[in-house]
Amino acid sequence: MTASILLGITIALVAAWGALALWIRAPLSLTARALLALAWLILALAALAALAWPAWRPAGYAFALATLALALWWLRIRPSNNRQWMPEVARQTVGDIDGDLVTLHNVRNFEWRTRTDYTPRWETRRYALSELQSVDVALSYWGRLAIAHALVSFGFGQDRYVVFSVEIRRKEGDNFSEIGGFFKQYELSLIASTEEDSLRVRTNVRGEDSYLYRIHMPLDNARSLLLAYVKRANQLHDKPRFYHTLTGNCTTIVFQMARRIVPGLPLDYRQLASGYLPEYFFDLHVLQGAHSAAQYRKQGRYTDRARALGNAPGFSQTIRQGVPGIDPA
């Protein structure tokens, strides 16, 4: 009896997963995908009936064969770097490391006016590791407190910053779906950009609410983190992978790299619920200049300052005004 219950639960889970996979990824028309997912669920129900009535046993065998066929089809869906990408992810950042010098190709520096009106610019920029001075994490929220997009900005003095952002590499016509992120709907991209591009577009164009946190860490570790980003960008350029809502997103990849640099970095649910990263940083004692995570949030919010500045010069200075742990000078 216990075996039948476990088998029934397994069939139900496979049925649910398979229906979503067919609905989201089957290369068919909307109507055909709906009919195929419905047929799959009907066959799964027949397989469940076979657990109670032996006369239905052929349906159980049919569902097992269908599951095998579905698994083979799923394994054949491979990520690619050759698709009709949206312009903001059309290129991939790659880097060359020559001793102290890091050269980044395809650094995005778009001039955004609206979501659809912008001047595209992809640039080559060079940074000396010996000049690295700071690491900041920007969190940008678009509706739910528990979820934020995390970007890491490396500062090299004189308002020279480069931001690394793990992005969904969307194709033309794609709309973002968190469920789709479980089903190989998007590739993963790691893009380097200017703050005037990737931070300003979120507050001033997309209407998101953004916060900045100065991360205090040894400069050797900061340099290792930067190099880890460059190496990961090169890997994605050479070997594409899919975005995954839980295991391959903006925060999980940050911490996969950071754990290589800071041994023993503890696992925590807030690495997935990225909106709560400030509390996580506070508990790790990498924030300075305030007495609580709430105070860091309040003083680190730069949304209004960014919007008031508009497209005027001085963006990086403006968003850092009053942020705890950053020298006002």
UniProtKB/TrEMBL annotation:
Organism whose genome encodes this protein: Achromobacter piechaudii
Protein's UniProt name: Lnb N-terminal periplasmic domain-containing protein
- TM ranges are 6-23, 35-53, 59-77
Q: What domain of life does the UniProt record list for this protein's source?
A: Bacteria
Indicate the segments annotated as coiled coil, or none if absent: none
Q: Give the source lineage, highest ranks first.
A: Bacteria, Pseudomonadati, Pseudomonadota, Betaproteobacteria, Burkholderiales
UniProt key word Cytoplasm = no
One Pfam entry name:
Lnb_N
Q: What keywords sit in the KW lines?
A: Membrane, Transmembrane, Transmembrane helix
Q: Which InterPro entries match?
A: Lnb_N (IPR025178)
Tell me the ranges covered by the Lnb N-terminal periplasmic domain, including all copies. 118-274
